[in-house]
Fold this sequence. Notes:
2 copies of one chain form a homodimer.
Chain A: H1 6-14, H2 18-27, H3 30-39, H4 42-51, H5 54-62, H6 66-75, H7 78-87, H8 90-99, H9 103-113, H10 120-123, E1 129-132, H11 137-148, E2 157-160, E3 166-170, H12 172-177, H13 184-187, E4 195-196, H14 201-210, E5 215-219, E6 225-230, H15 231-249, H16 262-289, H17 291-296, H18 299-302, H19 304-327, H20 335-364, H21 369-399, H22 410-432
Parallel strand pairs in A: 1-2, 4-5
Antiparallel strand pairs in A: 2-3, 5-6
Helix pairs in contact in A: 2-4, 3-5, 4-6, 6-8, 7-9, 14-15, 16-22, 19-21, 19-22, 20-21, 21-22
Amino acid sequence: IAEQKNAELQTMLSEFHYADIAEIADELEVEEATYLIKLLDSEKTSDILAEMHEDIREAVLGNLTAKEIASELEELDTDDAADIINELPKEIIQEVISEIEDREHAKHIVDLLRYDEDTAGGLMAKELVKVNENWNVLTCVKEMRSQAENVTRVHSIYVVDDEGLLKGRLSLKDLLTTSTKTNIKDVYIPKVDSVNVNENAEEVAKIMSKYDLEAIPVVDEIGRLVGRITIDDIVDVIREEADKDYQMAAGISREVEADDSVWEITRARLPWLLIGTFGGLGAASIITSFQPLMNDYKILLSFVPLVQATAGNVGVQSSAIMVQGLANDTVKGEVAARLIKEFLIGLTNGGAIASIVLLVSHFMFNTPYLVSFTIGIAIILVIIVAAIIGTFIPVFLDKRGIDPAIATGPFITTSNDIFGILIYFTIAKLILGV
Amino acid sequence: IAEQKNAELQTMLSEFHYADIAEIADELEVEEATYLIKLLDSEKTSDILAEMHEDIREAVLGNLTAKEIASELEELDTDDAADIINELPKEIIQEVISEIEDREHAKHIVDLLRYDEDTAGGLMAKELVKVNENWNVLTCVKEMRSQAENVTRVHSIYVVDDEGLLKGRLSLKDLLTTSTKTNIKDVYIPKVDSVNVNENAEEVAKIMSKYDLEAIPVVDEIGRLVGRITIDDIVDVIREEADKDYQMAAGISREVEADDSVWEITRARLPWLLIGTFGGLGAASIITSFQPLMNDYKILLSFVPLVQATAGNVGVQSSAIMVQGLANDTVKGEVAARLIKEFLIGLTNGGAIASIVLLVSHFMFNTPYLVSFTIGIAIILVIIVAAIIGTFIPVFLDKRGIDPAIATGPFITTSNDIFGILIYFTIAKLILGV
């Protein structure tokens, strides 16, 4: 495709939205993508770069000089520019920043680099419209006009005092309907939601979606306005958070995509599989230790997969409900009440499943009545214990400040496998008395 | 709390954000919440109602007259009003709508009722600012001013022709900088993204987040502008979608929350548990059918939990990666290439796990060399097959137009349990020759 016809390509691509070109670029070879980026003007290419897949962007940037990268960054909002710089090799960062002509922009980017990605500081951009409370409306409008040039979308006008402390916000309507001599002090709205620069990104997402905010100002430790976060950044946070929880529940320990290499995917998957393996070996030694029981009631072993599957499924269900409840703040009340509830749910589910198993095992597998009864009782108990473990562990982790999402998936499955089999054989031993 | 001190309560609550009051109301008894709603003025209460938990809102609305409900709805945007009406019992809907005084508002709400919740039509609101391309700037500004009264936040000004067909959008800046006699036709931007009213909600979310849009116009089948969707509604769609996928992966078949009743949670959980139960019974009959093998090599049975856990874990991992890849459109290329890749990943993971199992079983469980070898080979094969099934099923479902998310969780675990055990014993039979 990208052979010679530069002019044709240029006119064709100028019709496209930058997000679409980014998608095309992701499909191309690195050289072709670099060629494309060099062909188009930097106003568009900077947006394309911001939308591209991380790995491919990294490769493309590797083919550009520091000066070229700097000119791309100059076109971007400070938050996107900082994200891209963060991915560059350390040696180059210094050079790229020194090549940025707009020193104000460079300063902002450097400020942003020091924040952790997962905090409000890592999400925010420096572009915002702020006015001093001591200005009058006329000065304010003049200042706003020059500030607004750097801001793509004006969400709110923030009011600060001489120290830079966030005082409130200004409605555009009030600004236009009051006399030009009025002081800002007398017209601004002193109530404004804000978040601390160290606030967790997830928490910011919760606040913004709870209050339906399109932008929120960010303040530092002493209340000075340092940036603002817009809703489109929050959409990405929510998506990433959901993806991460989902992968954790599925037992994938690192962020991977379907298109990553065999080696990368293996590294993400093997750790949890190994936990499962050691769980399985533990189960094997439990079974071996019930040798005498096994000799007399061989049929018990046939139901091991059933016990194990049920324990795993119940555990995952219980923990998923808790993890989601904790994430959405819908879990209230005492832990004890919740465990009693899980006990009841376990009892109803267990009762239903145990009766089916009892009937099937007795009539299809011709097990003696007492053995069928044993299996049934064991399954009810296994389900109750699995439900309680599945509920308790996420709550416990959450209280310890650990992400409870880690408790779903292989972790809960493995521990429930072992407990399930242990309970099953112990009950059998007690009832059948071997 | 809510006893007598009305005045105090009123002043106290007037300081609060409606989303916070909604949270408080969710905690109260229905009568108390109703009391609270009646106490405050309807501008605030309507927002509180929109933010409240569905079940509690339903109960509170049950305590209000049709006239009271109508006056609440009058204060809300059409999309939120339509959502609330949809929850009311059928007999009351008619009455409530007839009580809405603003007939235009009532008409809009009725229009919205006919769209499916999960489409662009179900998400959109009628509140938007639209101008005719044949107007001049002066008429346009006048019209806009009156339209903007009903719109909380103006995101964009949409341009339509005499037939109501969406033609483009207008930038506020252009509008203010051109002479008042200019025709809109000559200044509007003819390029605007829009979605069809029947478009799937998830698809709308993808488009809006891909192009970083804060609002998108919705057109009907022939291109007439019928509404607009804002980013805050999309945030909810993304969250719900993620929650649904997560619950499906955990084997929960209906939307439940940690605070629902025992009966509701049981109903959501039992179906998948039953599938697991039947899978377990299937596994039991497979094991029983290998009776002669069992008699000679009892130790093989001890490793059943290991085989089963590994098959389940691998299947869930593979399917989760595919489901996520399909959801994010990052899955490209041939299915065959993908299956070969899973084969390789299975081989590396399988090799690692099999060697551990081989060593442990040989030295700790004192199994004969040939039996350890059998277990190792079987595990590699089980992992490869589980990985391929986990990858193939989501792709297959997706091609058939079924949500691939259903393939994760108990579904994949159960089928992999059965296949895993079958492969394990078949390999053992072949190698050990019983």
